Amino acid sequence: MKTWLTPILYLTILCLMYYYRIEIFNWLEQDTSLLPVLALSTLFAVFPIVPYKAVIAVLGYVYGGTGGAAAAWFGTTAAAVIVYAAASLYKEPGRRLLARYRILDSFSKKAERHPFITILLARMIPVIPQMGINIYAGVTSMPFWLYFAATGLGKIPSLFLYAYLGSAFAGKFL
User: Fold this and answer.
1) Is 161 buried (19+), middle (13-18) or exposed (0-12) by CB count in 10 A?
2) All residues at 6 or more sequence positions from 128 whose CB lies less than 8 Å from its CB, including other chains
3) What parts of the sequence cross the membrane (predicted)?
4) pLDDT digits (tens, 9 = 90+) for 77-133
C-alpha cells in the first residue's frame, strides 16, 4: 500500500493545483496573510505545476525582494524536507537503483563522506534539478540535519536573484 499511496497522492494534488492554477496566482497577487502564502509557496515547490523561478519572481513582485526571497526560502526548504522524508521511505529500493549504475554508486559513496558540501554546491548549480537533489539525499545515507543546513544555505543566492528580478517589475527592491 505504501508503494502506491505517495505517487497517487502526489498526482492528485498536482492535478488539482494545475486545474486551479489561475485562481491560485490571482489569489496570491491579492493582499493575503502570510501563513497561506507560505503554505502555497511550499505546495508550489513540492508540486511544480509552473517553474518555481516564476513563483519566486511573483513573490518578489508582491512582497519585494527580501520578503519574496524569505517566503520562497521557507517554501522551498519546507518542500525539500517533505520530499526528503518521502524519499527516505523508499531508501532500500533507491539504494538498489543507485547501485545498478556504477558511476552513481561511486558518486554516492563520495557524497556520503562529504554530505554538507555536496548538497550546498548542488543547490547552487542551476542546472541540477532541485527535486532530484531532495530525492537523492533521501535515499542515500545523508544525515538529515546536514542536508537541512546545506539546503537552507545553498538556496539563498538564487532565491534572492529571482525575487529581486520580480521586485524590479514592481519597483519594490527591498
Assistant:
1) middle
2) 122
3) 6-22, 34-64, 70-90, 144-165
4) 999 999 999 999 988 888 888 888 888 778 888 888 999 999 999 999 988 889 989
Give the 3-state secondary structure of the chain.
CHHHHHHHHHHHHHHHHHHCHHHHHHHHHCCCCHHHHHHHHHHHHHCCCCCHHHHHHHHHHHHHHHHHHHHHHHHHHHHHHHHHHHHHCCHHHHHHHHHCCHHHHHHHHHHHHCHHHHHHHHHHCCCCCHHHHHHHHHHCCCCHHHHHHHHHHHHHHHHHHHHHHHHHHHCCCC
Residues in the chain: 174
pTM, full prediction: 0.79
Q: Extract the C-alpha cell encoding 64.
A: 519585494
Inter-helix orientation angle 52-88/21-29, to 10°: 110
From the list 139, 143, 67, the residue with the least C-alpha distance to 105 is: 139
Using CA atoms, how far residue 112 sits from 51, 105, 118, 132, in Å, is 29, 11, 8, 16
Report the distance separating Cα 82 and Cα 147, nearest Å.
12
Contacts of residues 103-110 at CB distance under 8 Å and 24 or more positions apart, as own/partner, are 108/140
